[in-house]
């Protein structure tokens, strides 16, 4: 028996070319898949920081002590604890008569100084006429002019005294420096209030609209935001800030970043920021625990 070995027929070029194309396509797809997988964690991490949430506490935007400006007899307290007042509303009224008497006296002295100045002006005119007739000397004329100037200075002093006395009358009524909520009075009516060393507080007024929230930003949020924005102003313009109330509902007004901390707290490793929110319904009150939601604008 004779055995013969057949030589394999050559594979057509068209099949080889097709095989190369298939292999190249698979290789490119695999490479792209691996590359995509390598970028996914970083991209996912960036997206994870597009919306972040951290703890916050509501604090007053403004707060002021109401202290006695002058010593006097407190006649009337014009508010009750928790009352909402507007700027310029009367809060405390002191007994008026002593201050009013000082104002009346100052006005009378002003009238007298005005009359003396008019008399001095008339004397100067008379002296000038007599000087032209050589009846009085140059020295006597200069003397009348000096007396006129003294009378003018006395009138200016009298007018200043009227202003001071009027200020004293005005200070007998103390008004709200801005709109806000009043604390309970810390003094009683019909009692003497002494300015003393300025350490007497009669009440505290707290501004509620707008109001601020102090938040504590963790380092990872801070670091992610630093990568997203080139400057502090870009960050302020590029994020939207909202509040999550204790019940889980979203506060209806958005806030704005007004101040950021310059350091991390050593113990918590968090940075303090201040966000201001409109509060027209006066829903937010100091001490309320909330959550601040920071969202990157599209």
UniProtKB/TrEMBL annotation:
Residues 1-44 form the signal peptide. One of its GO terms (cellular component) is plasma membrane. Keywords: Coiled coil, Signal. The keyword Coiled coil applies. One of its GO terms (molecular function) is transmembrane transporter activity. InterPro entries: RND_pump_MFP. GO terms for biological process: response to antibiotic. Belongs to the membrane fusion protein (MFP) (TC 8.A.1) family. This is Membrane fusion protein, multidrug efflux system. It comes from Alloyangia pacifica.
């Amino acid at each position: 028996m004779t055995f013969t070995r057949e030589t394999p027929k050559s594979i057509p070029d068209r099949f080889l070319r097709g095989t190369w194309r298939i292999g190249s396509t698979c290789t490119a797809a695999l490479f792209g898949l691996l590359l995509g997988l390598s970028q996914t964690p970083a991209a996912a991490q960036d997206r994870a920081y597009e919306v972040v949430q951290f703890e916050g506490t509501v604090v007053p935007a403004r707060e002021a002590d109401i202290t006695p400006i002058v010593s006097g007899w407190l006649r009337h307290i014009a508010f009750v604890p928790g009352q909402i007042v507007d700027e310029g509303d009367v809060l405390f009224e002191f007994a008026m008569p002593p201050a009013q008497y000082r104002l009346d006296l100052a006005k009378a002295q002003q009238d007298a100084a005005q009359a003396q100045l008019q008399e001095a002006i008339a004397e100067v005119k008379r002296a000038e006429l007599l000087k032209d007739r050589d009846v009085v000397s140059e020295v006597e004329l200069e003397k009348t002019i000096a007396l006129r100037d003294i009378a003018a200075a006395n009138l200016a002093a009298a007018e200043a005294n009227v202003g001071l006395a009027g200020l004293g009358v005005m200070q007998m009524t103390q008004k709200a420096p801005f709109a806000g909520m009043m604390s309970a009075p810390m003094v009683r009516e019909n009692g003497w209030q002494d300015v003393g060393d300025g350490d007497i507080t009669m009440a505290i007024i707290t501004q509620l609209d707008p109001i601020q929230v102090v938040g504590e930003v963790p380092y990872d949020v801070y670091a992610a935001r630093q990568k997203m924005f080139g400057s502090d102003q870009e960050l302020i313009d590029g994020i939207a800030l909202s509040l999550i109330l204790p019940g889980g509902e979203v506060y209806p007004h958005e806030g704005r970043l007004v101040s950021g901390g310059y350091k991390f707290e050593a113990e918590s490793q968090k940075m303090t920021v201040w966000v201001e929110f409109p509060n027209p319904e006066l829903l937010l009150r100091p001490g309320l625990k909330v959550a601040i939601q920071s969202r990157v604008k599209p």
